[in-house]
Automatic annotation (TrEMBL):
Its cofactor is FMN; FAD. Its EC number is 1.5.3.24. Pfam families: DAO. This is Sarcosine oxidase subunit beta. One of its GO terms (cellular component) is cytoplasm. It comes from Lutibaculum baratangense AMV1. Keywords: Cytoplasm, FAD, Flavoprotein, FMN, Nucleotide-binding, Oxidoreductase. Residues 35-79 form the Rhodanese domain. InterPro entries: FAD-dep_OxRdtase, FAD/NAD-bd_sf, Rhodanese-like_dom, SoxB. It catalyses: sarcosine + O2 + H2O = formaldehyde + glycine + H2O2; sarcosine + (6S)-5,6,7,8-tetrahydrofolate + O2 = (6R)-5,10-methylene-5,6,7,8-tetrahydrofolate + glycine + H2O2.
């Protein structure tokens, strides 16, 4: 793998940038693999990378029906935080946050990680009490979290209006300083490059159309580029998780919904951190290009189209104007949608199934980006050893039969 460095950049600059090679190898599928990962998003590529790097399983193929990162990984608003309420969630999201911290160096790829802090605003006493409780729970789990009163919120993020005479006054906020944003494409490309260098095949424009089983065990996948034999299939297909599971007769309590986001025209630095508000129901951050990156809730109906409807955008915009009236004349530049797979308890499913060799990592809903490295790390471990590790264990599909849910609707909050 070509090493990237400042010296290399200068050298290439002087030579007209003619020496850069392909970031990952293009591959035609082989007849068989030890593991086939379906889905070339961040989670799938991270899974393949950790399978190769940690478990030494390099005979792996990642199959992507479009282009890598063309699903939710390339469509999300990249908010990263780990301040969830329950121990199980804190463990997996904080594991991810720790991995994010060194990921750019590990992958030798600039993922533009920015730990600029995430604010969750409270607009009434009830909300403030709930958020303070979450701060305490976070601290017990080693998650960095603090409570800011309104004056401290203003100091941290001057654009926020803390007057008392507005419809949704800001009473305070939680702050996770290590939270922030990064660059989604870079993460996907960084994982693809590192996985490919370790021997993983990445096959794009290839759809899995069926999964073959014999005597209750996986034997291979049918694809638009032919049949591939494998004893292990790892499905990491976000909005299509239940479609994959149906191919082997596994039923999941998952619903697929559109989730939209949009960006404004670029402006001077205005929003120094990530601002989220449950009550008003919108969140925003500012990209390095100066655009405000804005998101809110899912469209209520089920759909597999990667677009949503106007009323959500209208709601999103009125919420943003409520929160930051100063942006009311900004023009919006682009809008897009993804398909998110939501679980009843707003927590993911990382599980083996009744079909031997068929594993699922999905149900991350509106908030899986932040988990990408932790999810790939834990899932690779499950696929390699056929046993969930401590971090993944609470997220098996069995919890929907036992009732041992990880109910994170409060912390999952405004979709992100
Ligand atoms: C608008 C929006 C905003 C979001 N904002 C945030 C945020 O701020 N923070 C956060 O933490 N999360 C956020 N999310 C959620 C986050 O994007 C996802 O949870 C996460 O990216 C899922 O990653 P993934 O790799 O599992 O899925 P994806 O990136 O969707 O990858 C799955 C891949 O599987 C492929 N696939 C599907 N079916 C097949 C098949 N039959 N054969 C081959 N390939 C197949 C798809 O083409 C796709 O590329 C947001 C999502 C959206 C849509």
């Amino acid at each position: 793998m070509d090493r990237y460095s400042a010296i290399r950049l200068i050298r290439e600059g002087l030579n007209g940038h003619k020496g850069w090679g392909r970031i990952w190898r293009g591959a035609t599928p082989k007849a068989s693999y030890d593991v086939v990962v379906i889905g070339g998003g961040g989670h799938g590529l991270a899974t393949a990378y950790y399978l190769a790097k940690i478990h030494g399983i390099t005979n792996v193929c990642v199959i992507e029906k479009g282009w890598i990162g063309g699903g939710n990984s390339g469509r999300n608003t990249t908010i990263i935080r780990s301040n969830y309420l329950f121990d199980a969630s804190a463990a997996i999201y904080n594991h991810a946050l720790e991995l994010w911290k060194g990921l750019g160096r590990e992958l030798n790829f600039n993922i533009m990680m920015s730990h600029r802090g995430v604010l969750n605003l409270a607009h009434d006493e009830h909300e403030a009490r709930g958020l303070k409780r979450r701060v305490e729970a976070n601290r017990l789990n080693g998650v960095d979290a603090e409570w800011l009163d309104a004056k401290q919120v203003k100091e941290f993020c001057p654009v926020i209006n803390i007057s008392h005479d507005i419809r949704y006054p800001v009473l305070g906020a939680t702050l996770q300083r290590s939270g922030g944003v990064n660059r989604h494409d870079a993460v996907v490309w960084g994982y693809a490059r590192a996985a490919s260098a370790l021997g993983v095949d990445i096959v794009e424009q290839c759809e899995v159309t069926d999964i073959r089983t014999e005597a209750g065990a996986v034997t291979g996948v049918e694809t638009t580029k032919g049949f591939i034999r494998t004893p292990k299939v790892a499905s990491v297909t976000a909005g299509h998780t239940s479609v994959m599971a149906k191919m082997v007769g596994v039923k999941l309590p998952i619903e697929s919904h559109p989730l939209q986001a949009l960006v404004s025209e670029p402006i001077k630095p205005l929003v120094p951190c990530v601002i989220m508000s449950n009550a008003v129901h919108v969140y925003c951050s500012q990209s390095d290009k100066g655009e405000l990156v804005i998101g809110a809730g899912i469209d209520a109906y089920n759909s597999y189209t990667q677009r949503g409807s106007m009323d959500i955008i209208e709601h999103q915009m009125s919420s943003l104007c409520e929160l930051l009236p100063v942006v009311s004349r900004l023009r919006m530049m682009r809008q897009w949608g993804g398909i998110v797979d939501t679980c009843p308890d707003a927590s993911p499913i990382i599980t083996k199934t009744k079909v031997k060799g068929f594993y699922i990592n999905g149900g991350w809903g509106t908030g899986g980006w932040k988990a990408t490295p932790g999810s790939g790390h834990a899932f690779a471990d499950l696929v390699a050893r056929d046993e969930p590790n401590a971090i993944a264990a609470p997220f098996t599909v069995d919890r929907f039969y036992s009732g041992d849910l990880v109910a994170e609707h409060g912390a999952a909050a405004v979709a992100h």
